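Schema walk-through. Below, the input block comes first and the output block second. Nothing else is stored per chain. Lengths vary across the set, and this one has 80 residues.
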Amino acid sequence: MFLRQLLTTSCVGQLGPKAVPVLRADQTAAEAAREMRAHSHGSAIVCRDGKIAGIFTERDLLRLLAEGRPLETVLDQVMT
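--- output ---
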C-alpha cells in the first residue's frame, strides 16, 4: 500500500536520484561490480584524467562473463 501511495502522490523530482558509482578506467570489472552492488545501481561512470570516459553497465558485465574474460579485466577494455 505504501508504494502505491508513494507512486500516486509523488513527482519524480521528489524521489531523488541514487548515487552513481564513479570509477577510474584502470579499475577492474570486479571492482565495478562490487561498487554497483553497494550502490544498488546497474551502472557506473568511468573516468580518465578527471573526465568521463564511458559507462560500465550490467550488460557490459554480462558480455564480459559470456566471453569468458576474467573479472580482473580493466574497465578501459570493456566499458561502453
